[in-house]
Amino acid sequence: MKNLPFDTINLGADDVQALEDSYKALKAKFNIGLPDSNTHLNKFELFNNEPEASISGTFLINYPATNCYLNFVKIHYNYSVGRSQVKNYKCQAWAFVILKRDFGRVLIRRETFADRVLEVVHHTELKFKDDKQFSDKFYVVTNDVTKATAAMTSDFRTAIMSAQNTNFVIEAINDTLVIRNNQPVNQQDITYLAEFASKIAALR
After folding, report:
1. φ and ψ at 94, to 5 degrees?
2. How many whole angstroms separate alpha carbon 93 and alpha carbon 70?
3. In this predicted model, what pLDDT tens digit does every residue of 55-85 receive, in sequence order?
4. Can you name the residues that pair with 91 across neighbouring β-strands?
5. Cα–Cα distances in angstroms (integers) from residue 123 to residues 3, 14, 137, 151, 200, in the given order
6. Could you tell me the end-to-end alpha-carbon distance of the chain, in angstroms, rounded to an integer?
7. What is the pLDDT of residue 80?
8. Do the beta carbons of residue 1 and residue 23 sit within 8 Å?
């Protein structure tokens, strides 16, 4: 496809094809548009943990009806060829949602065994006593328990529980939430991510 709205420099042919397929799938299912300004990703720890990451493209998803958008982020990898290190890039899709509540700063991801062990020694995790199923499934840390507890309503937790993709990591800063998919771009995951972000954006 000519004039593909992505920066594809340093991406392999398979990755470019995946972006093209994802773009077609998004256009077929959503009313997508291009933003007027760049997203300020550097305020998110998820982005700062990838010092060589860059934005490949950004799409608004049914904006302003759903108030969310997708960023396609190029992530740097190194792999070995003999004694040499070769630099490679893969593209991931991250969804951003403008929220109706102030979350403070929150990180949400699937809980691991290591998290459970750490919780025995250091009680750092935010638990919801009235929602044991959510608390058992997800690891939540925050800098403001009051804000996070009020913002993470029952409807919000139910929406997060419905996520089919176990690779999501979610970070919220005040009224902006980012959903990171740790897998390289593919058409099926991109479509689902856009649907999931739209679902979160519709919450009141």
Report:
1. -120, 135
2. 7
3. 888 889 987 777 899 988 888 776 666 676 6
4. 74
5. 51, 44, 17, 21, 28
6. 39
7. 62
8. yes
Q: Name the token pair of 133.
A: 């199923």
Per-residue confidence (pLDDT) for residue 132, from 0 to 100: 92
pTM over 0.90: no
> From residue 106, how far is each of 48, 78, 194 by CA, in Å?
15, 30, 21
111 CB neighbour count, 10 Å cutoff: 16
Ranges of residues in the chain with a pLDDT under 70 are 1-3, 36-42, 78-82, 84-86, 112-124, 166
Instruction: Tell me which amino acid residue 95 is.
Output: A
What is the reported pLDDT for 113?
43
